[in-house]
Write a structure and sequence with these properties.
single chain; 116 residues; mainly alpha; 4 helices
Length: 116
Protein backbone atom coordinates (compact mmCIF):
# COMPACT_ATOMS: atom_id res chain seq x y z
CA UNK A 1 0.00 0.00 0.00
CA UNK A 2 2.70 2.50 0.97
CA UNK A 3 5.15 1.13 -1.61
CA UNK A 4 3.09 2.57 -4.47
CA UNK A 5 3.02 5.97 -2.79
CA UNK A 6 6.76 5.85 -2.16
CA UNK A 7 7.50 4.89 -5.78
CA UNK A 8 5.21 7.62 -7.12
CA UNK A 9 6.80 10.26 -4.90
CA UNK A 10 10.28 9.18 -5.97
CA UNK A 11 9.24 9.48 -9.62
CA UNK A 12 7.86 12.93 -8.87
CA UNK A 13 11.10 13.94 -7.16
CA UNK A 14 13.12 12.81 -10.16
CA UNK A 15 10.84 14.70 -12.54
CA UNK A 16 11.00 18.12 -10.88
CA UNK A 17 13.99 20.42 -10.57
CA UNK A 18 14.01 20.57 -6.79
CA UNK A 19 16.18 23.66 -6.78
CA UNK A 20 13.67 25.77 -8.69
CA UNK A 21 10.85 27.88 -7.30
CA UNK A 22 10.68 26.23 -3.89
CA UNK A 23 9.97 22.80 -5.35
CA UNK A 24 12.78 21.40 -3.26
CA UNK A 25 10.93 22.51 -0.14
CA UNK A 26 7.72 20.97 -1.43
CA UNK A 27 9.44 17.65 -2.13
CA UNK A 28 11.11 17.79 1.30
CA UNK A 29 7.69 18.05 2.92
CA UNK A 30 6.46 15.06 0.92
CA UNK A 31 9.51 13.02 1.94
CA UNK A 32 9.16 13.97 5.62
CA UNK A 33 5.49 13.08 5.61
CA UNK A 34 6.29 9.73 3.95
CA UNK A 35 8.47 8.93 6.96
CA UNK A 36 5.46 9.73 9.14
CA UNK A 37 3.23 7.52 6.98
CA UNK A 38 5.61 4.57 7.40
CA UNK A 39 5.71 5.04 11.18
CA UNK A 40 1.95 5.46 11.51
CA UNK A 41 1.06 2.52 9.27
CA UNK A 42 3.39 0.35 11.35
CA UNK A 43 1.64 1.54 14.52
CA UNK A 44 -1.77 0.75 13.08
CA UNK A 45 -0.70 -2.69 11.91
CA UNK A 46 0.73 -3.46 15.35
CA UNK A 47 -2.39 -2.30 17.18
CA UNK A 48 -4.77 -4.93 18.47
CA UNK A 49 -7.54 -2.52 19.49
CA UNK A 50 -8.90 -0.23 16.76
CA UNK A 51 -10.78 1.88 19.27
CA UNK A 52 -7.80 2.40 21.57
CA UNK A 53 -7.09 6.13 21.90
CA UNK A 54 -3.51 5.69 20.66
CA UNK A 55 -4.74 3.79 17.60
CA UNK A 56 -7.35 6.41 16.85
CA UNK A 57 -4.72 9.14 17.18
CA UNK A 58 -2.36 7.24 14.85
CA UNK A 59 -5.15 6.90 12.29
CA UNK A 60 -5.92 10.63 12.60
CA UNK A 61 -2.23 11.53 12.22
CA UNK A 62 -1.94 9.20 9.22
CA UNK A 63 -4.82 10.95 7.49
CA UNK A 64 -3.18 14.32 8.20
CA UNK A 65 0.14 13.12 6.74
CA UNK A 66 -1.61 11.80 3.65
CA UNK A 67 -3.49 15.07 3.26
CA UNK A 68 -0.23 17.02 3.38
CA UNK A 69 1.32 14.78 0.73
CA UNK A 70 -1.74 15.23 -1.48
CA UNK A 71 -1.70 19.00 -1.04
CA UNK A 72 1.99 19.36 -1.84
CA UNK A 73 1.72 17.06 -4.86
CA UNK A 74 -1.09 19.27 -6.14
CA UNK A 75 1.01 22.40 -5.60
CA UNK A 76 3.89 20.84 -7.50
CA UNK A 77 1.57 19.97 -10.39
CA UNK A 78 0.34 23.55 -10.54
CA UNK A 79 3.83 25.06 -10.32
CA UNK A 80 5.56 22.52 -12.53
CA UNK A 81 3.17 21.41 -15.29
CA UNK A 82 5.73 18.97 -16.72
CA UNK A 83 5.35 16.92 -13.53
CA UNK A 84 1.55 16.80 -13.60
CA UNK A 85 1.43 13.10 -14.49
CA UNK A 86 3.80 12.15 -11.67
CA UNK A 87 1.99 14.42 -9.21
CA UNK A 88 -1.33 12.84 -10.12
CA UNK A 89 0.18 9.39 -9.53
CA UNK A 90 1.14 10.52 -6.01
CA UNK A 91 -2.35 11.87 -5.44
CA UNK A 92 -3.94 8.64 -6.72
CA UNK A 93 -1.77 6.57 -4.38
CA UNK A 94 -2.80 8.82 -1.48
CA UNK A 95 -6.48 8.38 -2.36
CA UNK A 96 -6.07 4.59 -2.43
CA UNK A 97 -4.50 4.58 1.04
CA UNK A 98 -7.18 6.90 2.41
CA UNK A 99 -9.88 4.61 1.02
CA UNK A 100 -8.26 1.58 2.65
CA UNK A 101 -7.79 3.33 5.98
CA UNK A 102 -11.43 4.43 6.02
CA UNK A 103 -12.70 0.98 5.06
CA UNK A 104 -10.53 -0.68 7.69
CA UNK A 105 -11.59 1.77 10.38
CA UNK A 106 -15.26 1.29 9.52
CA UNK A 107 -14.95 -2.50 9.55
CA UNK A 108 -13.08 -2.44 12.86
CA UNK A 109 -15.64 -0.10 14.43
CA UNK A 110 -18.47 -2.31 13.22
CA UNK A 111 -16.77 -5.40 14.62
CA UNK A 112 -16.21 -3.59 17.91
CA UNK A 113 -19.90 -2.69 18.11
CA UNK A 114 -20.89 -6.30 17.47
CA UNK A 115 -18.57 -7.71 20.11
CA UNK A 116 -20.50 -8.64 23.26
Amino acid sequence: MVARLRAASQALGHRVDTGADGLGNDMAVIHRRLVDVDRLVAALVASSDPMDPATRMARHDLMNALGAIDNYAELIAVDHAQAATEAEAVRAAVRDIVTRVRATAEAEAEADLNTP
